[in-house]
Structure formats: C-alpha cells, structure tokens
Amino acid sequence: MDFLNGEEDYNRTIKFGRESIISRSKRKQLALSCMLNTEVGAVLAVIRRSPEFSPLYSPTEDTYDSSIVTSLRSLRSLIFNPTQEWRSIHPSIYLSPFLDVILNDDMPAAATAVALSSILKILKFEVFDERTPGAREAMEAIVTGITGCRLEKTDPISEDAVMMKILQVLAGTMHHRASILLGDPAVCTLVNACFQVVQQSVNRGDLLQRNARYTMHELIQVVFSRLPEIEKKGGGRRLRGGDYSGSESDDDGDDDGGGEVESGGYGIRCAIDIFHFLCSLLNVVSVIENPDGTAPHTADENVQIFALLMINSAIELSGDVIGRHPRLLRMIQDDLFHHLIYYGSWSSSFVLSMICSTVLNSYHFLRRFLRFQLEAFFLNVLTRLASFGSSISIQEVAVEGIINFCRQPTFIIEVYVNFDCDPCCRNIFEDFGRLLCKHSFTGGVSLTSMQIQAFEGLLILIHHIADNIDKEDSGPLGDYAVQLNEFIPFWEEIERDEDDLESWVEHVRIRKYQKKKLLIASNHFNRDNKKGLEYLKHAKLISDLPDPKGHAYFFRYTRGLDKKIIGEYLGDPDEFYLKVLKEFTETFHFSGMVLDTALRFYLESFRLPGESQKIQRILEAFSDRFYYQQSSDLFASKDTVLILCYSLIMLNTDQHNPQVKKKMTEEEFIRNNRAINAGQDLPRDYLSELFQSISNYAIALDTSTVSLDMTPSRWIQLINRSKVAPNFMQCDYDRRLCRDMFACIAGPAVAALSSFFEHNEEEELLHECIEGLFSVARIAQYGLEDTLDELITSFCKFTTLQNPYASPEETLYTFGHDLKPRLATVAVFTIANMFRDGIRGSWKNIVDCLIKLKRLKLIPQSVIDLESSADAPTTPESAASPTEDNRFGSHQMATIMHRFTLLSPENPEDGLTLGNESERNNKMIKLCQIGSIFRTCSNIPRESLHSLGRALISASAGKGQKYSTAHDEEETIEFCWDLITTVAIANAHRFHMFWPNYHEYLLSVVQFQMFSPVPFAEKALTPFGWKSLLNLLSVAWRYPETYDLGVEALVALFSDGTYVSRTNYAFCIDCAFGCFLAKNSPAEKKKKMLDILADSVNLLIHWHRTLYSDPGSGFSVASGTSSSSTEDNSRSLANYNMNLFVKLGEAFRRTTLSRQEEIRNHAVHSLHKSFLLAEELLFISSNCLNYFNLVIFAMVDELHEKMLEYSRREGAEKEMRSMEGTLKLAMELFNDMFLQSLKQIAESPGFRTFWLGILRRMDTCMKADLGHYGPSSLSEIIPDLLKKIITQMKEEEVLVPREDDDMWEITYIQIQWICPEIKDELFPV
Prior knowledge:
mainly alpha; two-stranded antiparallel sheet; elongated; guanine-nucleotide releasing factor
C-alpha cells in the first residue's frame, strides 16, 4: 500500500509540474499578445489624432496610406488568436505594420516615435530570437526601417524626440540576440545612421548629442567585442568552436571574404569598414573664418576626441585578435598610426593625451606588429614634445605619456632590446631616461609640478630595473665587458629562442656594443674617412675582406655621418663602390611611392656630388631600384625613370635657384618630357602633379642635416620596411641587460637624484629620494662600481660632515635639527654596510665622514673594539669573491627603509625625537651600524678591500685633514690605525693577499707634506706590519748617517732570531739585499750581513726539522685531524721552506753582480756556505735540480754575460778581469756543490738534461772570447774541473757505458768538442 501511495504522489507531482510549465508558457504568450495589442492601439490612436486623418475623405485624397491602418487593424485581429507561439511566428507579421509607419514620410513625428517605441519593446521583450524562422529578414527589415526613417512634417522638438527613439532602437537592435544574424552591410549601415545622428546633434540640444555619442560607443563595443569570437576559415567566417585553419591573405579580397557566415551574422568585413571610418574621422577639418577674410582649415578637436574614444574601445575589446586579420592590422599599422603621429605632434594637450592612450592600448595588444610605428611615435611625438621648447601643458602630457609607458611591466626592457640595441634604430630608452633626468633636475630653483612628475617617472624606471635585476630567474651575472672577437654583421638580428636565451642575450649585448662602436667610427669617418673605414675593420664591424654590404649599411644607418663624403663614395667609379652603391640603394623600399617622393627620400640620406658622371651612376642605381619596386605599368623601362629623375632635378634647380630669372612653366616641363616613355608620352596629369610638387616644395640637395618630421616619403618607407624587418620582440628582463640598460643613464640619474634631494624640503619626497638611492645601489652592485662611487660621493656632501668651513658646534646643530643631513648620513653608512663589495674610490668620502663624526665625539668605542673584531668569524672560504647570494635584494628594502622612518620628527618610535640634541644624534648613529662595516668585511672583494685600506692609510697620514691641535691629530691618526687593525684582523685569513698593497700605500704616504712620523710610526708597529716595517727600515740605507744604525738593527733582528719567522723571513731578505745596493757603504758591514744571511739557513733547518709554525703563519701540522691532512701540511711546509731557501740563494746571486769584487766573491762564498748548511733541505733530487737551475746556473750565466759585456768596452780591462776572477771562483764552487749533491741529482729523471747543461756552460767558459783583451784564464781551470767531475761520476758509476743509455757517448763527443786534450785520459780505448 505504501508503494502504491508513493507512485500516485509521484504521478500527481509530474502532472502538476507539466501543468505549471504550460501555465507559465500561456501567461508569457498572453503577456506578449497584450503588449502587441497595446502598441498597435497606441500607434492607431496617434494616427487618428492627427489633423490629416478623416474617414470622410476618399482614399485617393488621403494624405496618408490607408493600407497602414488596415495592416495595423489586421494585426490586432490576429493578436489574441495566434496559431502557435509568438517565437515560432514569422516576425515580419507583427513588425511590418510598425515599420510601414516609420518609413512613411507623411506620418506625423508622434506616430513615428510611437512606432519606434513599439519596435524597441518587441526587441527588449524578445518576442523572437535567432532561432525564429525569418529572424534574419526581420532584423534586416528593422535596420532598413530605422535607417530609412525621414521626418518631413515635424518641428525641431518633435524631431529631437524621434531621433532619441532612433538611437534607442539602434542600440536595442545590436544588443538583441538575433543581431548576430545581421550581415556586414546592415551593421555598417546601422553604424553610419548612428553617426548621422551624432552629426545632426551638434547644433541641437546637449542631451541629444550626449545620447548619440553614447549610442555610437555602444555600437562600436558590440561589434568589436564579437571580433574575438570570429575566426576565418577558407573564404568564410565562423564562430569560435571550430578549428582555426589558415590565416587571411594579404590580398584585400581575402580579408573581405564574400562567403556567408555559417551561423549567419556579421564579421570582419564590417569591423574593417567601421575602423576605417573611425580613422577617417581623425582627418575631419573645420573651417574657421579669420578677420582678414581667409578661411584656414584646422582639425576638429571634438571629432578627433570622439573618434579616439571609439578607436580605443575597438582596440581594447578586440585585443590581440586584430593580429589575425591582415587588413585590419594594416589599417592600424598604416592609417591609424600615421594619423596619430601627425596629429600628436601639434594637437592640443587633450588630444595628445587621448593619442597616448591609444598608442598604449596598441602597445599592449599589438606591439609585435608595430615595431617601427612605435619607434616613430616615441621619437617624433613623445620625445620631441617632452623636450624643452614646447608649452608646459604639452610637456606635462608628453612626460606623463612616457611615464605611463614606463609603468608597463616589460616596456623598458623591450624598448631597450628592440631599439637601443639595434644599430639601425634610435636609442629610445636612453632618450626617455635622459629626458626624465633632465626634467627632474632642479637647477637651484623651487620645485615645479613638472619636475616632481618627471622625478617620480625616473624613480619608476629605476625601481623597475632594480626589482628585476634582483630576481632569481633573471639570468646569470656574467662578464660586464663585451668582447667582439670576430666579425658579426651588425644589421642582422636573431630571433629570441626560449631554449637558448644565453646566446640571444649575448647577441643583443654585442649589437649594443656594435652600435656604440659605429658612433665612434662615424666621428673618425668625419675627420678622416679612410681612418674611419679602417676603424670599422679594427672594431670588427665589417669583415677584413671587401664587404660592400657592410659599407652600405654603415653609410645608410649610422647617424651623424658627413653626407658630402657619403655622396662622393657612392659616386665613385671603383668596382667595389659600385657594389656599395647597389647595396646602399637596396636598403630603400620605394613600393607605393610617387617618383618625386621617392627621390626626395633617397637624396636625404646623402649629398648629391657635383660631378656629372657620379650623379649619373647614383641616379641609375635609384632608377633601377624604383622601377622594379613599382606595381603599376606606368613606366615602360628604367630608362624612363632615369630621364624623368634628371628632368626633376633640373626643374628643382630652375624653380628654386634665385639666379634663374625666367622660370620654367608647367607646359614647358610637359613638353620637355614628351616621348620619353619608350617613344610614348607619360600621362599629362602625372607630369602635372610632379611639376606642382617640385615647384611648391624644393628637393633639398645640399642639406647637411635631416629633419625628423614624419614626411609622407618617410612614412611609406617605414611601412615598407616593417613588411620585411623582424617584428617587435617581446622579452623579459635579464640581469646583464638590466645592468647595461641602466649604465646608459647612470650618470644623469645619479645627478638628478642628488639635485632633487638637495633642493627639496618635503619629507615624503626626501624618503622617495632615499628609496631611489638604494635602488640605484642595488643595480650598481652588479658591475657598476663607478656609479656606486659617484652615488656615495654625491650624497656624502649632504651629510654636512665634509664642510671644511663649519665649526663643530655648527655641524652638530645642523646634524641634530635638520632631517636631510640625518637621512643622508644613515643612507651613506647603510650603503657602506650593504653594498661594500662594490665600493671603490668612495671609501675616501666614507672615511672622511667617519673621521668627522669621530672628531665630533659621535663614534662609539664599539666601532674599533679589537676584541669583537677578533671574534668575528673568518675562514679561508670567506676570502673568495662574493656570490650572488650575498647581494642586497628587494626583499630587504622594507627593513632598510624602516630605519629612515625612525628619523622623522613626526615618528616618536624608539624615542628618537626625545631627549637633547646629543642623545638624538647618538641614537641616530646607532642606525648607521658603522662598526659592522669594518668588523664584518672578511668577504669583500680584494679591490674593495684595497680601496678601503688606501683610504684609511691616507687619512692616517693626514691627507685631506686639518687639525686644530696636536692632540686632535694624534687621536685621528690613532683612530685610523685602529680601523686598519680591525680590517686586518677581520681579513687575517687572507693577509698575504691584501697586505702587500697596504705596504705600498704605507710607503707612499711618507711622501705627503703633512706626514706626521711620530704618531704614524707608533701605530704602524702592529703584528701585521713586518713587511712595511722592514721596507721603512731599508730607507736607512739611503743616508750615510743612518746606515750603521739600520745595519745594526737588522743584525740584531737576525742574531736574536726571536722575531724572525717564516712569515717575515722573505721580507728580511729583501731588506738585507737593499743594504748591498747602497753606495759608499763600508764593505765590512756588507760582508757581515752576508755571513748572517748564510747562517740564517739554520733557522730554515730548524723549521724543517720541527715543522715549526709561527703565529703569523697559516700552517700547523698539529692542527690536522687526519693522517692525510698531516701529510699535506708537512709537504706544504717543506715546499715553503725550500722556497725561502731559493729566495735566499737569489739574494746571494744578485749580490754577485756587485761592482765591488770583494763583495762579489764573499757573496759566492756565502752562497756556497748556505748550500752546505742546507743539506737536509736538498735531500730530494727535485729540490737540488730546482736550486741549481734557479740560482747556481743563473749566477754562472750572469757572471759570464757581465764579463763579456766588459770585454766589449774600451778601457774596462780591470773590471773585466775582476769579473773573470769572480766567475772562476763561482765555477770552482759550483763544481764542489755539484759533486756534493751528485748522488741525489743522479736519481732524478731529468739528470741527463741537467748534465748537458753543465757541459754547455763548461764549453762556454772554455771558449770565452774577450776580444782585444786577450785569452781568458778560464780555459786553464776548465780541464781540471771536468777531470774531477767525470772521474767521480765514473767512480760512483753514474757515468758508465750502458746499452740502454747514450750518456756515455754524448759525454765523449762533448769532451772531444770542449777539451780534446783530456779525451784520451778520461776515455781510454
């Protein structure tokens, strides 16, 4: 039972639902019937009320059509008896009576208005839709009825009411669902009718005019909002949903496409016609009567603004879909942009603002197709109008336009890549940047709205670059410098490849580099054209082999070239330059140009030479190019073009040369050009147009400069070029490009920031300056060290700490009460903290400010706390160059900028605005975090560390400082040396890397006039200054009165041995060697020093035995944690000790060249003594060989060379014999040292080569030629030395005959060559 009850309930529910649906449908149909009945009654009532209506008249006498009333009555009879639903009934049944009323010219305006209201109601109630049979015919009939409405019998008030109704029906028609069935002509007719109402409303009420414009806007929106849904397939159009196959042809016929829409409806053809119509509205002119009776034509600004609004809507709604339709795209590329550039260059500020918006919208959606159009607009409109010379209002609009473009996410990088890095284009980004810098530069006057606006634009540009250069995905850093090692055609560019962005970025940077080099080449070319062309080869801008195309592109696209020289080259009869002329002419695109326009444009690029043969060659090349690029059959051959060119040039001279009194007439010109077209005449109208053009506007044949106005010839050339050149390249930021990009405007940007900060007093703008400063620093940390130095130097002067004329009291007062110095001070020291890796020369300014703060008693002791410095973590790894992870990024900006908000007088946070002046200054100094600059500098690059040391050492020597008291001087120098010590401790792990440079700085500061020796020397004696100390001690050798004291100090240093370590041992040797070079010094002192140096080998032996590690060294075997690390450290120590021993030997070797024979001989003996003591160091064969090659062989060779040098001098026999004696001693001791270490050396794989080196030197000494001074006594000792050596080698079986070794045979041959008399004794048969 429950189941049966449930089934009955379900059936009742279904039945009730069906009845409910039927009931609702009936109610809707009844409502529509009532609506139609009401509308019919309303129309009939208005017709009856008309005075012309009278039923007594016969139909032939009626002033109205009786069939209209009949049809209305017939419709009423059918309204409540429909045979089917209204949506299924053909719409013409209930539309025709109302349309007949509208189309009837005799109907009163009131009846027409009511009929229009009825049509509007039918459309809004959607009595029919797109699926209703006859819907398309009905929509077409509505359009025909509305556009055919004529108001013959009406008054102005009634006519305005009817026109308002027409506008409503027009909008209702396009918003109706069935409007998609309208054909292209119908939509165009409807839009045209709406514009007619717009035109008629100009002289009527404001309400009608506003409604007409609004309706026009609605229609444009409806048409172009549907454009993204329209795609073309084959010859027809279809709604989105089918596959898009194929694209529109470049032929106009394909773009119209005569096919029907598969689902009906208008398409691209009406969009093209409407857009063309809107573009034509930009050319609407108005005639203005002047007092003198003339009537000049000027552009109608209201119409232009109205047209621009419509065009903007069309572009916004269509978006990038326009790019799929070639005719519509070409209309934007050609017609629209030509109008925008032309009118933008001289229109009012309002029109200019609208034009900028239109171009911006085009950039968003269509920039890929508008590369050269955008360049022309930026160059001819924005850059020109924003420059000084235009009215303030125009400048403001132009600058605002530039800023709006710069606000776009990728605009600046795309402009830089497409224009600034293209040698054939202008530097748009650089022009924009420098223009904003120039406008924001205050120049000492009060700020204007223009300057503030430009400054904010400059900040937008800087922030964009800074934010994108910090991105992790902005590419690797790479090298800053660009190297061009091979010839790459500068006129060729490659497409951006997502799979190989690295190559593309490098290509872009190379093109920018080539562009800079081309400008340099142009300067050379103008001064000396041959050197200019040679520079092109040197800079790899053209190939080493003759390259006509490279020369042609250089002449064609390089700005600033002397046009006269170009003309001479192009007319040169040389075969190579004939090829250059051909390539040069092929860079022009004359399609669509009239002959005189093309000739003008061609002759603008150079100055026509005076020689007739050169002129002929140039005009022949032009005629050939022009003829083959013309699509018409006007000219029979290129000869016709050539003859006509000559005729035009002659006409130009005749018409515009003041020396020609009798001017040529038009008839004479036409007569002179008869039968030049292969025996036929050219059209008279064509020749007449040429004559008028030349007569009215001369061809400039001798101009040295080119006007930048967008002439018709230039525009046609631009359009033709855009057809063959690559499209606008869309790209994202790359770190290297960002750096290169900012480098173009770095100098002006820093100057503008500094100027704005200096002359501005508004706190908010000051904070914006600081934020811009940090953005510049964020960019400069990527290879722009000079920019960072310039930035710091500029802002240091705003701290008031570098004012030499201000007293401490004045500085403290200004520093404590003025916000600007506080901001600048915190900014400078924060940059020194965050960006110290990139600081170079500006460390001097930072140190100067720091010293001033110290003298003002504002520097806390923690800045120079050596204990905290020693605790700072320093590892060898931190000595490496900083990685990108260490760089300051955008994520840190908020934290940094918060510091500056604490300085505001209106911000009481942390009590910075409380307390007295001293407390405020001290609290503010804490924000600078000065101490961390020096304590945490362990990983800054070597260049920055060197610059910091140079600045500190120079300041410690008093350079650039003025002291009021001696105590003040001592405190300052002590402070600087404390900072030097802090830096040295922080970088102890790489002491050997930076201290040599510090040493050079220390030596240089002693030459300062203000050098203060006492405090400087006291602070210089730090544990890290041994090299500097010993080199300062070596200064004592230069003066006789201090020589003995210096020697005694050095002897005491070596004798004690406590202070000599491996860290300073090399420095001690250098210092001692300086003693030997001193002139007029006692020989005994030098010999004593040589003995001490020879005995110092015992220190090396001691360190070698104990693996000693002094505090200054970085070696310690005990510190190793594994056997492998211990072995490595031991090996490093042994090598280091051996290097020190070699350095000692080299000091002896250099001393053997002394002028004093006594010192030379003693140096040889000292060398021998040190060799004997160092037996433990030389137990390895490689060490022995290395020592012999670097020291002993070198000593023998140098002594021999010196002896021969004296032998060639006149009157130098004494010196020669003295040097010969030293050489004999050296050879004898060399013989002993060799035999002593024979066992170790013989084990070396390189012993054979070593032995041949000994024999070669024996041979050299044996056959020494002393010229006119007679034979050398060396030949007396060489045989004995050879006997001694070979005998011991044979005894120790080092030199014995072996089957696998030829050393015995080689030695036999060498002895026979060197000293044959001992051969038999040494090698008995």
